[in-house]
C-alpha cells in the first residue's frame, strides 16, 4: 500500500461519511414517508461504505487520515435550499463517483485490498443511482420545474470541481496521483453525463 493510496482511501472514506451525514439530515427533515425510508437506508449504506474504506487501513494498522478538501463539490452543500435540490446534488455526484471508481479500478498498480473493496462498493452504488433517478423523473413528469434548474446548476458545479480535481491529480509530483489523473483524463470522453437526460423532456 503506497502513501498515495492511504490518502485516496482516506479521501473516499471522508466523502462517503459527508454523504451519509447529509442523507441523514434530509431523512430527518423530510415530510414524505417514501423519502424518509429511502434516505435512511442510503444514509446507512454510505456510512457503511465510509467504514469499508477505513477498514482497509484499519486491518493493515495504517492511519485513516484527516481530510478537509477545499473547493470540492461537497463544500457547496451549504447552498442547498430543499430536498429536491439535495437529491439532484446527490445524484449528479454519485453518477460521477461511479465513473471515477470504475476508472480507478482499472489502474494496473492498484493495491489488491483496495481493489476488492472498490469492487463491492461499485456494486452497491448502482441501486443508489436507480431510485433517485426514478423519483426525480416521476416528479418531473408531474410538472416539477425545479429538477431541470437544479440539474443545470449542479451539473456545472460538478463538472468544474471534478475537472479541477483531475487536472490537479494529473499534474501532481506524486507518480500514483499522476497515473490516476492521466488515466481518468484519457477516459473522460467516455463519460456519459447521464443526468442530462432530465434536460431532454
Ligand atoms: Fe457510497
Ligand atoms: Fe452512494
Provide a count of the helices. 6
Quote the average pLDDT. 94
Strand residue percentage = under 5%
Unreliable runs, pLDDT <50, ≥5 residues? none
Q: Sum up the overall morphology in one term.
A: globular
Notes on the protein architecture:
With 201 residues, this protein is mostly helical. It has a single domain (3-199), classed as Ferritin (Up-down Bundle). Helices cover 72% and strands 0% of the residues. It has six helices and no strands. It has helices spanning 3-29, 33-59, 83-104, 112-141, 146-170, 175-187. It is globular. The chain starts with a helix and ends in a 14-residue tail after the last helix. The relative contact order is 0.13. The model has no long low-confidence stretch (mean pLDDT 94). Bound molecules: fe (ii) ion (2 copies). One fe (ii) ion (FE2) is lined by residues 16, 46, 49, 121, 125. The site of one fe (ii) ion (FE2) has 5 residues, from α2 and α4.
Short description:
The protein is mostly helical.
Secondary structure layout:
Blueprint: H1 3-29, H2 33-59, H3 83-104, H4 112-141, H5 146-170, H6 175-187
Bound molecules: fe (ii) ion (2 copies).
Question: What keyword list fits this structure?
Answer:
globular; Ferritin; 201 residues; 72% helix; binds fe (ii) ion; single chain; mainly alpha
Amino acid at each position: 500500500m503506497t502513501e498515495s493510496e492511504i490518502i485516496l482511501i482516506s479521501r473516499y472514506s471522508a466523502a462517503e461519511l459527508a454523504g451519509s451525514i447529509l442523507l441523514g439530515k434530509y431523512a430527518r427533515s423530510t415530510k414524505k414517508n417514501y423519502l424518509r425510508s429511502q434516505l435512511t437506508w442510503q444514509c446507512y449504506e454510505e456510512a457503511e461504505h465510509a467504514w469499508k474504506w477505513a477498514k482497509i487501513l484499519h486491518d493493515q494498522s495504517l492511519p485513516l487520515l484527516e481530510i478537509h478538501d477545499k473547493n470540492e463539490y461537497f463544500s457547496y452543500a451549504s447552498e442547498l435550499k430543499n430536498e429536491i435540490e439535495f437529491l439532484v446534488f446527490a445524484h449528479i455526484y454519485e453518477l460521477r463517483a461511479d465513473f471515477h471508481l470504475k476508472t480507478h479500478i482499472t489502474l494496473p498498480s492498484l493495491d489488491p485490498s483496495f481493489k476488492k473493496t472498490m469492487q463491492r462498493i461499485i456494486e452497491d452504488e448502482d441501486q443508489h443511482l436507480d431510485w433517485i433517478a426514478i423519483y426525480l423523473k416521476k416528479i418531473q413528469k408531474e410538472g416539477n420545474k425545479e429538477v431541470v434548474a437544479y440539474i443545470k446548476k449542479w451539473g456545472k458545479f460538478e463538472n468544474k470541481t471534478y475537472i479541477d480535481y483531475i487536472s490537479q491529480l494529473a499534474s501532481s509530483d506524486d507518480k500514483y496521483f499522476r497515473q490516476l489523473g492521466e488515466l481518468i483524463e484519457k477516459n473522460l470522453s467516455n463519460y456519459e453525463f447521464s443526468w442530462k437526460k432530465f434536460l431532454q423532456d
